[in-house]
Amino acid sequence: MFYEIRRYQVQPGRRDEWVRYMEDVIIPFQTGKGMSITASFVDEEDPDGYVWIRRFEDEQERKALYANVYESDEWRDELAPKVRGLLLADRITVTRVVPTPASGLR
């Protein structure tokens, strides 16, 4: 099992709009496609920072879920354009992590 820690920079001053969109649209859409969303955070020190975490059993599951989400017509036609308008795409970072034996996320 592993997690993706995804760090985004939202367009300046639009983080509240982004969080609403994530919580009302993106997270329900992705969980409906089988994604496991572990957490969603705003950065306390960066007014435009946002972090979320997704969990995968293995690489095969990650690839299948990515296809379910990102190759869907709804993502391409409706959600992705809105996401591109709210985020600074060149500032997205994704870190894959594996929990240690004593981790509460194991």
From TrEMBL:
<dbReference type="InterPro" id="IPR011008">
    <property type="entry name" value="Dimeric_a/b-barrel"/>
</dbReference>
<dbReference type="InterPro" id="IPR012577">
    <property type="entry name" value="NIPSNAP"/>
</dbReference>
<dbReference type="Pfam" id="PF07978">
    <property type="entry name" value="NIPSNAP"/>
</dbReference>
<feature type="domain" description="NIPSNAP">
    <location>
        <begin position="3"/>
        <end position="101"/>
    </location>
</feature>
<protein>
    <submittedName>
        <fullName>NIPSNAP protein</fullName>
    </submittedName>
</protein>
